[in-house]
Design brief:
40% helix; 7-stranded mixed sheet; alpha/beta; 3-stranded antiparallel sheet; single chain; binds pyridoxal-5'-phosphate
Length: 427
Amino acid sequence: MKQIADLQDTDLQTLHRDVQAEYDAFRARGLALDMTRGKPAPEQLDLANGLLSLPDNRDHHSEDGVDARNYGGLQGLPEVRALFSTMVGAPPERIVVGNNSSLAIMHDCITWALLKGVPGAPTPWSQGPTPTFLCPVPGYDRHFAICEDFGIRMLPVPMTGQGPDMDEVERLVADPTVKGMWCVPKYANPTGEIYSVETVRRLAAMRTGAPDFRLFWDNAYAVHHLTDRHHAIANILDLCETANHPDRAFLFASTSKVTLAGAGLAFFASSPANVRWYLERAAKRTIGPDKLNQLRHVRFLKNEAGLLRHMEAHRALIAPKFEAVTSALEQRLGGTGVAQWTKPDGGYFISVDGMAGTAKRVVELAQKAGLALTPAGSTWPYGRDPDDRNLRLAPTYPPLKDVRIASEGIALCILLAAIEKTLLSSR
Ligand SMILES: Cc1ncc(COP(=O)(O)O)c(C=O)c1O
């Protein structure tokens, strides 16, 4: 198709009529499809059903003889920390295994930083001027929601295709009120971006105005590959240590999208000082984590090869859904110049940038046609996308046939909204 911007007025009006008619027909199908949250599909959860009968009721002891049914073991069983060491990117002694949600661990870290301060902090964050977090955009709405809830100021930083714009990051972190930065370094939510070695090195080495600055390194998609290219990122803990900032990074990960989203394992990892800090705080909060679930995970996945095999089974289920979305977008929007979209090698999302000023309208059109999309703006701090352009698509949950239909509908809505916008601005 021709670029929409190059069409003569009459051609544009004809196209509008045709696309509107297609949209009306789509809407008349009375669909109810949901592409909002990045949840695993039931078939993905079925892959982990083996967990449900583990551990065997005659063997609920860890390798070193700990009875997993009892209290204690705050840092997590050693064999679990060893199994996930590569995925988390830290040696076992620097890993803490929590319960099912890494987001909860991030929330704890922010609460404790605000109320107690982190190692190296002159005061708790809440006792100084309003703390600020750098937020690469588009980004993860739940990260932004934690900051908003605690009144932490958020500054958006653009992504570049190699991670955040590091010139901008280095400029902004000189401000001592900047206490933290959200990073999803691999297969980022929602752009699928992978931080380059250079980006990671600069994040580790940069000068920060705050001595207690922390990278919130949320490696949620460490092993969630969608292709044969199993991308690796540079090790942030090692690079921070080399740069003489050993305490800079708080690492987070989980098996929410490996085993069971509501009953997985979550991880915190960091420097020895930060791990001590975390465990001191955590000891006031709990007498110990769910070690039966830890044991269950080791018995089920067995070793790193088992973990990677399991992720291949996920890939077989979800890669066709990603393919369905990108080929529908290509078919309908290719050459029109109205949108760009990502083709991620991993993770859970496709990010679409439509024509400026159309994202809200796309979501509205989709909703009227029975397609639930993530609200426009949700990939930005405070839900405000200044260009009203970005859309996050989450194709994993619905069945493949629904993803196909929904993707055609979404592409149609993006096109219709762009034509409407172009007609309006040509008046
Ligand atoms: C970047 C990112 N971090 C964290 C989470 C949630 O992790 P958990 O289930 O471990 O709380 C998600 C879920 O979508 C995510 O996309």
